[in-house]
Amino acid sequence: MLLSLGKFLVGLIYRVTTRGTEKLPKGGFLLLPNHVTWIDAIVLQMACPRMIRFMVEERIYKLGALHWFFKIIKAVPISQKHSKEGLRRAIEMIKQGEIVCIFPEGELSRTGILLRLKRGYELIARGADAPVVPVWMDQLWGSIFSYYGGKFFTKLPRKIPYPVLVAFGDPLKPDEASISAVRQRMLDLGEACYEERPILKTNLAEACLRGLKHKQFDTAIIEGTDHSTLTHGMTLAAGIALSRYIGEHCKGRRIAAVLPNSKGAVIANLAIMLAGKVPVNLNFTAGHSALEAAVRIAGLEDAITAQAFIKRMPDFPFPKNVLKLEEIMPGLKTRILLWRALVFLLPWRLLTLMLQIPREGGHKEAVVLFTSGSAGEPKGVVLSHRNILGNVSQFSIMVNMTKEDTILACLPFFHSFGCTVTLWFPLIEGIRLVTYPNPLETAKNAALIERYKITMLLATPTFLRGYVRRAEPE
Q1: Is the pLDDT of residue 151 over 70?
Q2: From CA 30, how far away is CA 80, in angstroms rounded?
Q3: The pTM is what?
């Protein structure tokens, strides 16, 4: 009854999906999961069709509020002082046909990444001569009971019910269950679970729309050259208005974006994506022949740029149709204000329907980047919606940025990190962005870091050497 109550309460917060229960041995075996939250045991029990006996560190086992609960579920206390007794009881239970679970990391992950596995489980597996089953619990990192954001419990859930996927792996024989073998099986299960995450199937345009709509009154972009700002809502409205214009005046599937890092460059890339087309940020620092090759290879017929850029680089091999932002945007003011009102009033799903954004992107082409051309002609690298969204998702998990953080976007958008981390990542995750067109102007970039308390700078080692030499330590 107590277990049923626990499952019911946890089920109100988590929606647990299970894979691989048919692989579980009929008799006793040792279960080895990753350890991300305080309630991993309850989630795991929800996914497992049979009762699990958990091994619990003795200090936690004896905590007043939890001691009675652990006794009822027949948990096995274990400590360094009494490790032999705990191991003996676990072996006996497995021999009696029970499932015994031990968290091989020995502690909660504070990063969401699988920690180093400890050897205690090997003694149990060999002593009981029983199969070892690795299991992976996916997406728990980021939930209330994980250490995501540097704190337990005191955070709101991102989604209710919170989706969790629990995947059981193929059983290993006790003599095959080395630390390296088990770790590899767990990582393989983690990869298989990650492949099923809904974000990887989404369309990049929809992900940007959702991100900008969610935090529409927060500052999205600060222009480092003149310190002007745009909110997320206004960025989205401007992007939508420009996307309608692009749809009317650009016939090609791929559109060149030839702009230094700026509000205009962000809006142009967003608009191209919302128009259902593919942005191609060209490396305007490359040689003339390399740029000509890129335009030809990508089949570019349209480009978005600025008049100031055309004057600075008069020999740039632009395609036939060139749109100049400073000529277009003033004429879109009324449309932008209308779309701003709609962004405020309408739910994001209705906006995606109005804009005819496909629900799924998957392996379809989303972005094209070009190599530098140092080894012959530049090569066009096609990145799918899944590529970009996967990288953004992984980066978000690793760096754990909040609305208090700010990214300095001085790395050009034609660079792989500039494209992924300083363009699409902030739009999707709602992170504030400070743009500056030249990563080599270290003094000005350093001043922006100081002024806006920037918490992330992306640069190549060559660029970073300039900061080390010229910028003040502060």
Answers
A1: no
A2: 20
A3: 0.86
